[in-house]
Write a structure and sequence with these properties.
Elements: H1 12-25, E1 30-34, H2 40-50, H3 58-62, H4 64-68, H5 70-73, E2 79-86, H6 94-101, E3 108-109, H7 118-137, E4 142-145, H8 153-160, E5 164-165, E6 171-172, E7 180-187, H9 206-210, E8 216-218, E9 221-222, H10 228-234, H11 241-247, E10 250-252, H12 256-259, H13 286-290, H14 294-300, H15 310-327, H16 332-342, H17 348-364
Length: about 375
């Protein structure tokens, strides 16, 4: 049985070194601790929600109070252990990613989603980490989360000292840029907390300037309703016509603000095989992905974050990208034939996007 927490087991310097070592052994690249007080961040969240900038993410509004106070989410919580895990596969080349975005035939999937679902990867390791901590300091109450509960993850990680908030609202640090996942362990033991770190974005506005839909409306201000990642992943309805051309050939997520960020030049590669690309998602063409049946979609995306959007939204996204390819005069006959052949069996959502896509061929003629 673990011993109860002692002053020595909670000593800041000893615990800090031990936590770093255990986290690294489990595949994490950063670990810091903070309290549960979010202060002005909770007020900013309420303003963001009141402005409707969360779009159709109703769960943001529904659980706003929990999101603002971890103690309400898990009663008894006094500390949050925040961890980060790098996800860039070793072969990732940002220049090659930009080139793929310029090729209308290619289907671009966000780098983080090409491998195994990060929720599964982090959750298992967080559970193991929590058990190790309990063995070290004594009995504690805890729960683990990774983008799976109403928590202000980025704000907690920022407050803990894992990084600073970039102007695109993502977390940044000197060693990993922004290419890492976050996880949390909520505990009921008053562990020593870390210090916030300085902001290092300076006058740079690259992320704001590069955003295809101008979703970053000002430094540290994101309107999800304009964000391509939101439109492709979270939005269950039709893609607004005014944003379809800006989507280009992106079919799941958007990495532009990360690809352009100077700090990601220093992003470390992950050696975890879980995040290696699967099913050719780093080089697949639009026509190759369009050829998948619903059964193939479910099978190929088993264990993937992509699977949760479902086949209909997947086809919706592909149809928009194929329409943009037609507008560019690329593989016109093959793409038009593939779209037309799918019309008789398409549902209402996909039908509307196929018809729009075929209309782009007429405009480019």
């Amino acid at each position: 049985m673990p011993l109860s927490a002692t002053p020595q087991s909670l000593d800041a310097s000893n615990l800090r070194d031990w936590l770093d070592g255990q986290a690294l052994a489990l595949g994490f690249h950063g670990v810091r601790i903070t309290d549960t007080h979010l202060g002005p961040a909770a007020e900013r969240l309420q303003e963001w929600l009141a402005d409707g900038r969360h779009g159709q993410m109703e769960y943001m509004q529904r659980h706003a109070q929990l999101r603002s106070n971890p103690e309400l989410l898990v009663p008894g919580t006094v500390r949050v252990i925040c961890v980060s895990m790098n996800y860039l596969p070793p072969e990732t080349d940002f220049d090659a990613e930009w080139q793929r975005l310029e090729d209308p035939t290619q289907a671009v999937v966000s780098i983080y989603a090409r491998g195994r679902d990060y929720h599964k990867v982090l959750r298992n390791r967080l559970q193991e980490f929590a058990k190790l901590i309990e063995e070290r300091i004594g009995k504690l109450g805890y729960r683990v989360f990774t983008d799976s509960a109403p928590l202000m993850e980025v704000e907690l990680a920022r407050k803990a000292g894992l990084g600073w908030r970039g102007k695109h609202t993502l977390l940044l640090n000197r060693e990993s840029g922004s290419t890492f996942f976050l996880g949390e362990i909520l505990v009921d033991v008053p562990l020593p907390i870390g210090q916030e770190i300085e902001v290092h974005c300076g006058t740079c506005t690259s992320c704001i300037d590069v955003c295809p839909t101008k979703a970053i409306t000002a430094p540290y201000q994101l309107d999800a309703r304009r964000c391509i990642s939101y439109l492709i992943i979270e939005n269950p309805d039709a893609i607004p016509v005014e944003f379809r051309k800006a989507m280009g050939n992106r079919v799941y997520g958007c990495d532009d603000c990360q690809l352009i960020c100077p700090w990601n030049k220093f992003a470390k590669r992950s050696q975890l095989p879980d995040f290696a690309k699967r099913n050719g998602l780093g080089q697949a063409t639009l026509l190759q992905l369009w050829s998948w049946t619903e059964e193939e979609f479910e099978q190929r995306h088993e264990g993937s974050a992509i699977r949760r959007i479902g086949y209909s939204r997947w086809r919706r996204n592909l149809a928009v990208a194929m329409g943009n390819a037609l507008a560019n005069g690329v593989e016109v006959s093959a793409i038009a034939e593939a779209l037309s052949a799918a019309l008789p069996s398409a549902d209402h959502l996909v039908t509307e996007h196929i018809e729009w896509a075929l209309g782009q061929k007429a405009r480019s003629a």
